[in-house]
Structures are given as structure tokens and as C-alpha cells.
Amino acid sequence: MILTDRIARGVAAGEVSTVFRRWAAPRVRVGGTLHTSAGIVEIVRVDRIEPHEISNAAAHRAGERDAEAVKAALRGSPQDPVFRIEVRYVGPDERVALRSDADLSSQDVAEISAALARLDKASRRGPWTDMVLAAVAEHPGRRAADLAERLGRDKDSFKLDVRKLKNLGLTHSLETGYEISPRGAAYLRAIAG
């Protein structure tokens, strides 16, 4: 589940505590967390509801003006159920500080290289980390679909792989596309010799 920047900031400020989604099946679990633009958000409760149960008060807790606005924003098939998801702000995203840390020791470089080697080894399609890092570095801000196509990949698996690199602090999401983080740039310089 992705939260828009406005909603994520509302959760962080304590102004938003509920999110509504229409899915064939729940895509989040109680106790799970989301990395958002405003920090870490925890899933507190997930309930299946009928759309007519969305009140104006519930809409306000979701950061919307009224129930009709919530219903109008629901995506997916009208036959799919609606879920009310209660959320709470946990704290800042530790990856933000990590991606800014460009002062890499030789041990840091070795640990990043080992983590990337593990990702490559675990992949069913073979090594991918060097290609994805290079594509993001060469084409900052390029749409994920475009980068995936350049690499002969599908968009969804490509985005999942970029997220793995983001978890290591090597990439950063932009409004559109990605860029190499300061940590990622330092790593690429270090391995280039």
C-alpha cells in the first residue's frame, strides 16, 4: 500500500489515522509497517466494511473532506470489498539518514558489496544489482517503466529490486523515477577504483 505524501504527512502529524482501500483481498497485515515519504507508518487494524459505512467523521480521520470524496477516490473493481485501515506514525525512516551517509570506510564498502552479492545470488533471474544501479545512475528521474524496458524487465519486479537497493541506502525515490543517493554514489566511486 502506498500513501501519498499529503496523507503520509497527515499520519506523521497525527491528523490522519485511517485509510480506505478497495482490494480483492487485504494487501496489508496488522503489525506491518510502511515506508512513506514522512517516515514509518504501522498498520494497527484492518476491517472489511461496506462503502455506505464510511461516515463524514471517518472521512475526516482519513484526511478527506467527506464520505463522498473517500468513495470517489476508491480504485479497483466495484465488486471488490472496501477495507478500513487504521494506521499510526512510528517514527522517521532510518533509510533517509543511511542514504545521506557518504563517508564510507573500506568495511562499509565490503558490507555493501556483500549485501549486493547476496541479492544477486538469491535472484531467480541472475545477477541484477550492477545493472540496476548503473541504470539509475545514468538516468536519474527516468520513469520505472522506462528503466525496466531498457533492461528487458517488467516494471513491477524492477521496482521491487530498486526498493531493495533503497533499503541499503543506495537509491532514493523521486516524484518520478529514482536517483542514486549520496551513499550510492560514494559506493560506486569506491568500487570504480
From TrEMBL:
Superkingdom assignment: Bacteria
UniProt xrefs under InterPro entries: WH_DNA-bd_sf
Protein name: ASCH domain-containing protein
Organism listed in the record: Nocardia rhizosphaerihabitans
